[in-house]
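Quiz preparation item.
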């Protein structure tokens, strides 16, 4: 196969290297019994900017596009930019319409859609939606349903990172059943510590605690926030890293277990644990640290058989030690920043990875089915 390492970015960072190695590995996580036929029509289960971006890419590839829209979005731009557009969630509120999995699948099947792209937000990290696509015989443009489920569970994602040899922040191995476990953890590792929602993100259900007497109040508040936001108040507790850099690595994987990275973005400028500014490449990042971050990201993705675009996020402390925090198993808003520094090489890589996959299919005697 071809193992690709992107080394060209704006400003001149190295060269694009192609290295031949011996084996092609099929991902063990590929959904069974789903025939991957040529993609001729893609439905985007989303709205606005991300839907339009996907439509543009499909049009450039000669793929027909399908938009879905709520009753309130009849005049929205994404509906006008697609070749076809269909109403979903009739009678539902705007957000609820885009979360109506049965209706989205109904529209896709009724109009001969080959693949569904979830965009970001809405259903993009819902394993039940990915599974619904597979069950309907429609290709889900994203990771396999089981991978989406694992990466959406912060506790399980942490355990996977440990198995992959990726450093993690000291923390509990699973959701804590009561305040007592948090107290015991704080006695062992010291303050500050942070509570995190086990089944959500976006800064909700997160509370930093700096004193023992503040543990109980913050535990209760974090639990309540997580329960309200995600329907599950489960929390885990970690040692809080003071004033870290927040670095994330963009990855791409195919269904044969091949994974590449597209370097890093620095998203340290945040407000209430939510990113405000993204910078790529990260300024004044030690080259050896960059190599460790990108290598760990690729290893983690291979550990779970990751397919499609994704982002592996890390914290880097004042001493230069890095710690895994989570995987975003979807396309991100910030992907455009990576596109800016990689120019056309993303297209080159995608073409090469497709060629590798087609070669494998021919070797298996199944012809060209991509």
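Solution:
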């Amino acid at each position: 196969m071809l193992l690709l390492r992107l080394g060209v970015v704006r400003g001149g960072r190295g060269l694009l290297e192609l290295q031949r190695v011996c084996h092609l590995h099929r991902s063990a996580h590929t959904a069974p019994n789903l025939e991957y036929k040529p993609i001729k029509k893609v439905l985007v289960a989303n709205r606005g900017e991300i839907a339009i971006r996907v439509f543009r890419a499909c049009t450039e590839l000669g793929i027909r596009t399908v938009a879905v829209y709520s009753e309130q979005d009849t005049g929205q731009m994404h509906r006008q930019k697609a070749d076809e557009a269909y109403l979903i969630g009739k009678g539902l509120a705007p957000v609820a319409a885009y979360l109506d999995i049965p209706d989205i699948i109904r529209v896709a099947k009724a109009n001969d859609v080959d693949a569904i792209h979830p965009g970001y937000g809405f259903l993009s990290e819902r394993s039940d939606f990915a599974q619904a696509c597979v069950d309907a015989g429609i290709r889900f443009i994203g990771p396999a349903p089981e991978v989406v489920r694992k990466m959406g569970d912060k506790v399980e994602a942490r355990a996977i990172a440990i198995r992959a040899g990726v450093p993690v922040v000291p923390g509990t191995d699973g959701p804590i059943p009561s305040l007592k476990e948090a107290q015991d953890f704080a006695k062992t590792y010291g303050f500050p510590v942070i509570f995190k929602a086990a089944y959500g993100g976006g800064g909700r259900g997160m509370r930093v605690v700096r004193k023992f007497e503040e543990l109980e109040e913050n535990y209760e508040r974090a639990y309540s926030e997580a329960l309200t936001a995600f329907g599950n108040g489960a929390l885990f507790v970690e040692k809080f890293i003071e004033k870290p850099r927040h670095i994330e690595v963009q990855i791409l994987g195919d269904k044969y277990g091949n994974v590449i990275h597209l370097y890093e973005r620095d998203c340290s400028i945040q407000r209430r644990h939510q990113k405000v500014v993204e910078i790529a490449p990260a300024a004044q990042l030690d080259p050896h640290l960059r190599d460790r971050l990108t290598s760990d990201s690729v290893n983690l993705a291979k550990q779970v058989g990751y397919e499609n675009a994704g982002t592996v996020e890390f914290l880097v402390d004042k001493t230069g030690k890095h710690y895994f925090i989570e995987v975003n198993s979807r396309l991100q808003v910030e992907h455009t920043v990576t596109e800016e520094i990689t120019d056309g090489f993303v297209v080159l890589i995608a073409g090469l990875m497709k060629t590798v996959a087609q070669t494998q299919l021919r070797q298996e005697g199944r012809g060209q089915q991509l």
